[in-house]
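Class, carefully examine what follows:
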Amino acid sequence: MPHAIDSIELPKLQFEDLPRELIEEILSLMPTRSLVMISGTSKLIHDIATYILSRRLRHTLHIEGYRLIFECYAADDKFNHPFNHCEYIGTHVGAENSAEATKKFQKVPYFTEDDEGEECNPLANLYSNFTPRSFNIDSQPPSTTVTIDSGDIFTQICASASLVKLSNSEYGGVTSIIPVCESFFRVKRDWLDSAATYEGLQQNNPIAWVGMGENMGLKLNVTGRRIVGPAVSGGVRGRDQEDEAVEYGVEYDGVVIRASYLLEMVEKKQHTSFFQNLKLASEEEGVTGGLQETTTVAVF
């Protein structure tokens, strides 16, 4: 006679059958890069990973008090330019931060049978938005002058961003610096000419991406252009006459950084336990019944 226990069919449990609080505790131990990679497996994992991402951002920018410092300069003017501090605006889906950009990601952001293996994971498309502010009393956006010589089709500009933590002592000073990005990028003459037109002003501020991977971008506002030099005849490109030397006025209206990339830079610099000591949602925010549901389009 077979034992009664042999005839009992145990239920097939999946990872998602665990309590939400326990899943969050498990995922909280993972670095940001791993969270982004697994967030496309299911809606539950995506929602919890999105919440953890937003909590880590708040911890870095509000609890720890890190501030983004931004600088942008021509290739030959590295040591003669001002720093600009940046005000954190929020984190949104898509770098454009517009209604049209958000509509692209209204689809459920995880794998389904109908997707036929196509990846739809906007967690990697979350961008943190910052507004550069000058350290001067003047409230005007930070600006610069970009010059493209006759015969040139582009100019190179270096952009740099770092997270800094200021000391609370009476002597001031910086207690911690986390490099985020430093790279050259090219600004083309045609792009500047287009952005300086009336049609270009009607569009959202065009984004100039810094470096590879679209991890950091600048929202530029071209305020005007003026010719500062004559055209060169018989240029190097084989044309009868090259373009004139032009000077453009450019304002830095915004800095966008991929949220997951920003947190990865923090994790590289800080100890591995920097984010692992955060409290659960029920303890930190008084949420009853576990983690709250999050929306498919994250804005925080």
User: Anything to note?
Assistant: The mean pLDDT is 75. The longest strand covers residues 174-188. The helical segments are 20-27, 32-38, 43-63, 99-103, 189-196, 198-202, 259-269, 281-284. The two ends are 62 Å apart (CA to CA).
